[in-house]
């Protein structure tokens, strides 16, 4: 693709917003996309998590740039995508995977500040990233934009109202983007991750409580980050005559 500003040929890349440790959804996505030959922009709020991830990907032969940015900050997101363009890349695959720690909170203990924080990260951030991604995909008339959802995207449960409201809003943004920009050649998908993910966040939670909970799930009772990443990649590879908009991922033991 030629850049309208200087006529240079832009190379396709992948962008993962909400990347973290290698043993998590975001890190697994970065590794999978890099293994497929795409230069990956691994973006998150913690440089302490991004740098080890980037080092591991490079050691495995992948190409990656670690960028510290807050998805809920429009200026950060615009700077990220401007940096991508200036580096000679164009987004071919963008994943919004940012989230806040999903802890049960009673209605009485839920503050307006908590609700707003959850909404800004899980919903507003998705809109901002989607807006910037689509703006850069439209000239090439192709690209894949994927949003990470949860079972909370579909239903509200006691003590998880703020998270569910934010995730449901993200799902609606994804539907609106898909209906408006699918005919323009942009594949927009929403992935419902239904179940606990067997990554670092769960394993390190609560001084061993998370690891103990994962143990009770048994073999393959939690979602494997690499298996999730493979499903995202397959979404990207779909032919446009048979696109999936919403995909449910859950362990075989998980009820629904």
UniProtKB/TrEMBL annotation:
PANTHER family: OXIDOREDUCTASE, SHORT CHAIN DEHYDROGENASE/REDUCTASE FAMILY (AFU_ORTHOLOGUE AFUA_5G14000), OXIDOREDUCTASE, SHORT CHAIN DEHYDROGENASE_REDUCTASE FAMILY (AFU_ORTHOLOGUE AFUA_5G14000). This is Glucose 1-dehydrogenase. InterPro entries: NAD(P)-bd_dom_sf, SDR_fam. It comes from the Bacteria. SUPFAM superfamilies: NAD(P)-binding Rossmann-fold domains (SSF51735). It holds the Pfam family adh_short.
